[in-house]
Predict the structure of DUF1345 domain-containing protein.
Amino acid sequence: MQRRWAPVVAGSALVVAGSSVAGLYSFRGDVPVVFVGFCLFVAGYFVARDGWAVLSPFEYALGGVESSVRTEHPLIRGGLGLVGIFGIAAGVTQFSLTVVDPSVAGAVRAGVYSVGGYAWTHVVIHQSLF
């Protein structure tokens, strides 16, 4: 298999940009901007890994999946994935705010949002928790 470098470079640039936006704006408490940063990060990850086909939800179908949590339609999976990414964004933002102003309740919220969002997104993307 020949490796195409354009999607790797473009995807890596999105990963860097998205993670930078998410990291910087999380300390401001700006969850919507952190969410956009994480969306860029995830898009970049998939573009770098799988190429340009991931940008077309109809060309990028998950094949060979067997699970009780099966969501075939790529737009539905994408929408459900965004819910989880929002949870991750809320958790990372809460964690950053807890670093600035420590609190046990804030740390617990950060963990619940982050781990819950990650688990949700992992199930949606991979159709499996593990």
